[in-house]
Amino acid sequence: MASRIVSFELCGREVEVLVKPMTTLQFVLRNQLGYTGTKEGCRQGGCGSCTVLVDGEPMMSCLLPVEDVAGRRVTTIEGITPVEGLAPIQQAFVDTNAFQCGYCTPGMVMLTTALLDHNPAPSREEAVEALGGNVCRCTGYAPIIDAIEAASASATGDATRDAGVMPDRSGER
Amino acid sequence: MAKLRGTGIAAVNYPTGMNLGGDPSQALIHATTSGSFVVTLSSSDLGQGLRTVIGQIAAETLGVAADEIVIDTADTDTGPHCMGTFASRATHRVGNAVKAAALETRGALLEVAALELGAPVDRLELDGFGNVLVAGEPARCARVADVASKAQFQYGRTISGRGAYMKPKSPVDPETGAMDPDSTEAHACTVAEVEVDTETGQVAVLSIRSAYEVGRQVNPALVRGQIVGGAFMGMSHALYETTEPYYPNPDHKPKDFSEYVMPGPAELPEIDCVVLEVPSSTGPYGVKGVGEMTANSPIPAIVNAIYHACGVRFDDLPVTAEKILRGLESKRSAEGAGPGVTGSGSNRPDAASNAGSDASGTADAAGGR
């Protein structure tokens, strides 16, 4: 089949790409547009490291033909990173040491961005539920859940959920 | 059918580094014209924070701020030799090499500062904030950045240093087998709590609590990150991960990444640790190392806890739900066969022989969470 031109909004600007049918959004982002912040983990929808936002919803870009985002709004980790410094969610990941190798981090940050957009103060259970499709092999997830809580606290001004402080959960079980 | 709780304990002594043909690492440091210091290594940071802790060691030894250190691990073809980042060796081995290189660099820096300040080297000190001072004369000082710049544009000097550390190969005594394979050992002990569902065979790990003795912690937050992540990996090894799971039909085994079974955030137990620091005599500032060991003791602690909960001993990982159900089945049939039948050895002995056992956590105390 012939290639065609697909246009969509990427991080606030219109882009046009020439693609063969079924080319994934992930491939286009990384290899045609140079947006390498979106990682390529498994190419099977099994790890979530390629998570981006499409019209504000988290999606695994490795499973998404780029034709499907024609005319839609795509946001990657580059799109939420300020020119200077870090977004509050990124800062929360730094403050809680929520990464080691960092390969899952862009996907985790995009997932957290979508979660907090929909639910500014998620419970710990809701945070765990949201993370279900994204794999982290280094941290054991605990600091990532802490990062979500810290980001939520910094956005909602909840001083009891301070960034960087491991909450005392000793009485939970 | 019941949910049975149990507690298990296990300990690990973990040697730092290895003993093949000697275990060397080397480092080079040089000052730039702006007074930052480039540490050139071939050692990789896997995400455990090697660059951070090496930067701390270099800054501490040089007497400058940590943000003046640039760690360059760009290329193993062109960098000084390193055996690699494995066997929990890098902070110890590379740290020693960097410390030696930083000492030589510091000496070269002070030689130029001595020219600049007109004072002997042995009267100079670094304040850790980017200044060289003449001891006892606070008015006589120079910025490290200026000294570094003048070294290159005025004095024609280099400010650089070389460092090497090698653990020599230790031969084995053919008579006794005695050898000295490592230069230091870290230690840990883990207590795990589990709940075994005898209907489904599922094991839930409720908590993994550990005590670690890892020598001096260069960066306690990174040490904790290793321990928490390692405990989760240990749980994953103990209960989930294998490329060759048992299925009646081998065609059903996982074919790719998305079918590979591993725990997710919903399986996260309570993980906590305390860290004791007993400095080693061989590591930089007393470092031993923490890395691989963090996934070691959680595994036998969990398997011992399963034994404590349901009386079945497993010696093959991972302990899947299927193995639990088969183990319980053979235990029941051995018990049903009456006295005198020892069965498969999976009968539960008296609690006294179960390390870490606590009567309150035995099968009889079963119940929901």
The whole-angstrom Rg of chain A is 17 Å
What does the main sheet of chain B amount to? Answer: 4 strands, mixed
Q: Which two chains share the most extensive interface?
A: A-B, 29 and 30 residues
Across the major sheet of chain B, the strand order is 1-9-10-11
Q: Rounded to an integer, what's the Rg of chain B over CA atoms?
A: 27 Å
Assembly status: heterodimer
Shape of chain A: globular
Cα(first) to Cα(last) distance of chain B is 15 Å
Low-confidence stretches of chain B: 340-369
How are helices and strands ordered from N to C of chain A? EEHEEEHHHHH
CATH architecture label name of the largest domain in chain A: Roll
Percentage of residues assigned to helices of chain B: 25-40%
Explained architecture:
The complex is a heterodimer of chains A (173) and B (369). With 173 residues, chain A is an alpha+beta fold. Chain A has 2 domains: 4-80, Beta-grasp domain (Ubiquitin-like (UB roll), Roll), CATH 3.10.20; 88-156, DNA polymerase, domain 1, CATH 1.10.150.120. Chain A has helices at 25-32, 77-80, 88-95, 105-118, 124-130, 142-156; strands at 4-10, 13-19, 51-54, 57-60, 73-75. In chain A, a hairpin with a 2-residue loop joins strand 1 (4-10) and strand 2 (13-19). The longest helix of chain A has 15 residues, at 142-156. The model of chain A is unreliable at 161-173 (pLDDT under 50). Chain B has 369 residues and is an alpha+beta fold. Chain B folds into 2 domains: 3-14 and 183-365, Aldehyde oxidase/xanthine dehydrogenase, molybdopterin binding domain (Aldehyde Oxidoreductase, domain 4); 18-167, Aldehyde oxidase/xanthine dehydrogenase, molybdopterin binding domain (Aldehyde Oxidoreductase, domain 4). Chain B contains 6 helices and 11 strands. A 4-stranded mixed β-sheet of chain B has the order 1-9-10-11. Chain B has a 4-stranded mixed β-sheet with strand order 4-3-2-8. Chain B has a 3-stranded antiparallel β-sheet with strand order 5-6-7. In chain B, helix 1 links the parallel strand 3 (37-40) and strand 4 (69-72). In chain B, helix 1 (50-62) runs parallel beside helix 2 (90-117), helix 2 (90-117) packs across helix 3 (144-153) and helix 4 crosses helix 5. Chain B starts with a strand and ends in a 33-residue tail after the last helix. Residues 340-369 of chain B have low confidence and may be disordered. The interface between A and B is medium-sized, with 29 and 30 residues.
